[in-house]
TrEMBL record:
It comes from Rhizobium pisi. InterPro entries: rRNA_ssu_MeTfrase_G, SAM-dependent_MTases_sf. Coiled coil: none annotated. Belongs to the methyltransferase superfamily. RNA methyltransferase RsmG family. Keywords: Cytoplasm, Methyltransferase, rRNA processing, S-adenosyl-L-methionine, Transferase. It catalyses: guanosine(527) in 16S rRNA + S-adenosyl-L-methionine = N(7)-methylguanosine(527) in 16S rRNA + S-adenosyl-L-homocysteine. S-adenosyl-L-methionine binds at G66, F71, I119, E120, R135. This is Ribosomal RNA small subunit methyltransferase G.
């Protein structure tokens, strides 16, 4: 099996397939993603989320903010299972979604844990990390604000954020409060989308 041109092992494919079955089951009673995207689950959500690990395939400690239906946090945790190293802390304050995430991690034997708390409380509970991810959560300025407790003054902590066609405006807005190094990774799934890699974060105001 291939995702975005990356060869995926049989074990990882089985984990992803089992996650997809679980997701479809839970999505019947919990609003995990926009209903209009459910029929395109593999491309719009699983393949899209897998790009995070493809960009940064290191066995580091991740913090996934607003994990929702598990994108990209559970997908990253599934890929880390093959490495037998690294960990994903999934932060999701909605307790029904948190219950789904716990079930998904347990049944796929993925390397992650769930924190059913608000993002603002997460740093005190989780501590330091090497990478942060978020998808469909907030604009870039808001995401950097959420990530700042982990990233400010930490050269080795990077943020990886999915963004759509309006990402240039979001970058301009974020530069009003922050300085940071930026890499733009073009999406292999959505033509006008990118994954923004943020590092060396500094506060301006």
């Amino acid at each position: 099996m291939e995702l975005n041109g990356l060869r995926v092992s049989r074990e990882t494919q089985e984990r992803l397939s089992h996650f997809a079955v679980l997701f479809q089951k839970w999505a019947k009673t919990i609003n995990l993603v926009a209903p209009s995207t459910l029929d395109d689950l593999w491309r719009r959500h699983i393949a899209d989320s897998s790009q995070i690990f493809q960009i940064h395939p290191e066995p580091v400690t991740w913090v996934d903010l607003g994990s929702g239906g598990g994108f990209p946090g559970v997908i990253t945790a599934i890929f880390l299972a093959e490495l037998q190293n690294g960990w994903v802390h999934l932060v999701e304050s909605n307790h029904k979604k948190a219950a789904f995430l716990r079930t998904a991690l347990r049944e796929t034997d993925a390397r992650g844990s769930v924190h059913a708390i608000r993002i603002e409380e997460a740093h005190a509970e989780i501590g330091e990390c090497g990478a942060i991810s978020a998808r469909a959560l907030a604009d870039l300025d808001g995401l950097i604000g959420y990530s700042a407790p982990w990233m400010l003054g930490k050269e080795n902590c990077r943020g990886f954020f999915h963004k759509g066609r309006d990402y240039l405006r979001e970058i301009d807005k974020a530069h009003g409060r922050w300085e940071f190094d930026l890499l733009e990774h073009k999406s292999a799934v959505e033509q006008e989308s990118v994954i923004l890699e943020i590092s060396n974060l500094r506060r301006l105001v």
